[in-house]
Write a structure and sequence with these properties.
The complex is a heterodimer. Chain A is an alpha/beta fold. Chain A is 31% helix and 23% strand. In chain A, the strands form two sheets. An eight-stranded mixed β-sheet of chain A has the order 6-7-8-3-9-10-12-11, with helices on both faces. Chain A has a four-stranded antiparallel β-sheet with strand order 2-1-4-5, with helices on one face. In chain A, helix 3 packs across helix 4, helix 3 packs parallel to helix 6 and helix 4 crosses helix 6. The longest helix of chain A has 18 residues. Helices cover 76% and strands 0% of the residues of chain B. Chain B has a domain of 163 residues: MetI-like fold, CATH 1.10.3720.10. By secondary structure, chain B is mostly helical. Classes of the chains: A alpha/beta, B mainly alpha.
Chain lengths: 340, 309
């Protein structure tokens, strides 16, 4: 067993809105091992971004709250740290890449300065040392002519190049954990592939553990060793990428896999999961997916399913895995490639 | 940069030509003549006066004469004030107006920025509400109300500062303060909105995710970006004050330009009307140019576009 670097135990996050309390994350358990890459997948509003932002404590202070649970980073509970202590961890131990490179860089500051800021804060480098390191970082993320480009402003970079800058900023202080919140969503497909290649490459070079947040299963297969599937603020299935892709157990995972376009499929239309995600202002007391699940039973509506261990790494929260439940086979469309 | 400024200077001349022509013909549409009020003059005498100043010529001829004098730098003489050259009348009067205007703009901008920033950082708290309340009052209550209040309490009751007239720095405080209220309110309101807008941007989250302290995030990443739109409104705001404000000048008996301008319109003193309008326009156009250049200093995206243009 490898060493757990980050562990989320029963994390609950709520937002206080005019309409009431929105329970965006409800009892999430996750762990990240040193140097591994974990993907969190799910549709919009499933709580994946909120989970990641709560690790960084970047949620708005006034309107949100980590209500319960602990987030252990190397044994320290991040939810209990003061803002001061948290500043020391942000950017140096745990850092983050954001979705939209067009808006995540400050338009009135040169990219060099934006990279150097974190370095100077966390590593006490002199101006020249920080500049040298920034040039090396730009070289590392594949930006040509870094000596010149370091003095340029974000608007002089293309989208893909900006995302490389964002990655350079995140990697500046050699973080132990890198959280990538949909890093390729805002990019076009060819650039997506380049950025994914870059991230895989950098992970091998630096040994940083990555939490990849995405709704793109293709990206997951590319980059991650383990997957957690989120729905309605809870994790419905986790396992190694192989387990979740080739032996999925949760009907929501089936739905996700079915709605992925396939090259060899004769079907002209893409499958979709009917219905909409639950309103987390009033979360259902049972399984959040019950309302959209074709296999739902009465018990699914009434009670939250327990987590069942399929293997030592593969866990699913679904009543279908209960021994009293009827045997259900996943639909044809959910079988990926050479599935069993 | 040089090309940019030269191009702008050319545009300025064209703009100025259009403004001058428009004003000239509009002014001629006004009823009455400069000498109508002089009841003691006979028609014969009025005719001679009109003849002397070329007012009997057809309007297009007067226009051409005026423009050719203008190109030579001759703004003409006042009809009302003993044939005094208009240019000296303006230079004599602009001093107090400009000093007051600059003072009010500086006071207003500094206090306004502080209020706006504080309101945004303490969004939805009593500081925010107080600052917003002040902004609404400052924008909706005319400056002469503040002028009166200040004169009465600070000038008369407390006797700390002179109530009116223009004789040294002490005399600047009350009129400058009354003028600055509107600036404070406008700048504060703008800065608050812009700060809130910038604080919600993704790059602020990026800055926080680097582990920067709140102070650094606000100082280096927020304020500068929020300042950009504020700079645009500062230009016109400042120029309005610098070129003189009739009411405040009148209340505080400041010998400024604003008062002279209004009386020249009442008296159909054509050369003074024209010269003051041209002077206002030149000031306005120059300030807009300065604002555009400042814009480029703050915002690198505009710097590049301007350099190419």
């Amino acid at each position: 067993m490898m060493k757990k670097i980050l562990e989320l135990n029963n994390v609950n996050v709520s937002f206080h809105t005019f309409a009431g309390e929105v329970k965006a994350v409800r009892g999430v358990n996750l762990h990240l091992e040193k140097g591994e890459s974990l993907a969190i997948v799910g549709e919009s509003g499933s709580g994946k971004s909120v989970t990641s932002k709560s690790i960084m404590r970047l949620l708005p202070e006034k309107t949100s709250e980590i209500k319960e649970g602990e987030i252990l980073f190397e044994g320290r509970d991040l939810t209990k740290l003061s803002n001061r202590e948290m500043e020391k961890i942000r950017g140096s131990e745990i850092s983050m890449i954001f979705q939209d490179p067009m808006t995540s860089l400050n338009p009135t500051m040169t990219v060099g300065k934006q990279i150097m800021e974190g370095l100077r804060k966390h590593q006490n480098l002199s101006k020249n040392e920080a500049k040298e390191r920034a040039i090396n970082l730009l070289k590392l993320v594949g930006i040509p002519n870094p000596e010149l480009r370091i003095n340029e402003y974000p608007h002089q970079f293309s989208g893909g190049m900006r995302q490389r800058v964002v990655i350079a900023i995140a990697l500046a202080c050699n973080p132990k954990v890198l959280i990538a919140d949909e890093p390729t969503t805002a990019l076009d497909v060819t650039i997506q592939a380049q950025i994914l290649d870059l991230m895989r490459d950098l992970q091998q070079k630096t040994g940083t553990a990555i939490i990849l947040i995405t709704h793109d299963l293709g990206v997951v297969a590319n980059l991650s060793q383990r997957v957690a599937v989120m729905y309605g603020g809870t994790i419905v299935e986790t396992g190694t990428t192989d387990e979740v892709f080739y032996n999925p157990k949760h009907p929501y995972t089936w739905g996700l896999l079915s709605s992925m376009p396939k090259l060899n499929s004769a079907e002209k239309e893409l499958m979709a999961i009917p219905g909409t995600p639950p309103n987390l202002l009033n979360p259902p007391k049972g399984c959040p997916f019950a309302a959209r699940c074709p296999y739902a039973m009465q018990v699914c509506v009434d009670h939250m399913p327990d987590v069942t261990d399929v293997t030592s790494t593969h866990k699913t929260a679904c009543w279908l895995l209960d021994e009293r439940a009827p045997q259900v086979e996943p639909p044809e469309a959910a079988l990926v490639g050479g599935a069993r | 940069m040089v090309r940019f400024v030269l191009k702008r200077l050319l545009y300025m001349l064209i703009t100025l030509f259009i403004i001058t022509s428009f004003t000239f013909f509009l002014m001629k549409l006004l009823p009455g003549s400069p000498f109508n009020n002089e009841e003691k003059l006979t028609d014969q005498q009025k005719f001679i006066l009109n003849e002397k100043y070329g007012l009997n010529d057809p309007v297009p001829v007067q226009y051409l004469n005026y423009m050719s004098n203008l190109v030579k730098g001759d703004l003409g003489v006042s009809f009302q004030y003993d044939n005094r050259p208009v240019s000296t009348m303006i230079t004599e009067r602009i001093g107090p107006s400009a000093v007051l205007g600059v003072e009010a703009t500086i006071i207003g901008t500094i206090i306004g920025l502080i209020l706006g920033i504080a309101a945004a950082l303490k969004h939805n708290t009593s500081i925010d509400y107080l600052s917003s309340l002040f902004a609404v009052l400052g924008i909706s209550i005319p400056s002469f109300v503040f002028a009166g209040v200040l004169q009465y309490y600070v000038g008369v009751k407390l006797g700390w500062l002179p109530v009116a007239l223009w004789d040294g720095p002490k005399y600047h405080v009350l009129p400058a303060l009354s003028l600055s209220v509107f600036v404070i309110a406008t700048v504060a309101r703008f800065m608050r909105t812009e700060m809130l807008e910038v604080l919600g941007q993704d790059y602020i989250t990026t800055a926080k995710s680097k582990g920067l302290s709140n102070l650094v995030v606000i100082w280096k990443h927020t304020i500068r970006n929020a300042m950009i739109p504020v700079v645009t409104i500062l230009g016109p705001l400042a120029i309005n004050l610098i070129t003189g404000t009739l009411i405040i000048e009148k209340i505080f008996a400041v010998p400024g330009l604003g008062f002279q301008f209004v009386s020249s319109i009442q008296l159909n003193d054509y050369p003074v009307i024209m010269a003051t309008t041209i002077f206002y326009s030149v000031c306005f156009i120059i300030v807009i140019l300065i604002v555009d250049i400042l814009y480029g200093v703050i915002d690198p995206r505009i710097r590049v576009a301007g350099g190419k243009g």
